[in-house]
Write the structure tokens for this entry.
Amino acid sequence: MSTAQDPQAAASSAEPHAAQPQAPGGQPEAAPTPEQQLAELQARHAEVSDAYLRAKAEVENIRRRSEEEVSKARKFAVESFAESLLPVRDSLEAAIALPAATPEQMLEGVQATLRQLASALERNKVLEINPPAGTKFDPHHHQAISMVPAEQEANTVVTVLQKGYLIADRVLRPALVTVAAPR
């Protein structure tokens, strides 16, 4: 009976050998010593610390670059607009330099300069607010100066006293208007 073994005893005696890694010579590997475990953990800690410091430095560099870009954007935001106004200034200076110009020449020059200015404003998304008569009064785009009796619907624009302007859908200056009074 000594040749017959209990199946559970055989399985339990085989498990410790199966769970241990085998060394190349077929012998089970020895468990790492506490010193080896400490060295491995310290090496891993150094790797993680290095990765953290690199990530932190990268974030700081991105933040610094972003601040510089925002600063430059603010500093040079009007550059394009100012550049588009320079031909208008040149035209005005040229008109002043011609004292012998006839009134017709002066009017033609002023009209050309006004077209230059309108073009420069349009290129920079500055648009007129110039509502035609009868347009419903919009307090977001119009400023009523007075209410006048008129043969049109109440609270509609009668006349525009001064044009308003939008810049990128934001009111720069509302149009000054008179509004039809209720009858």
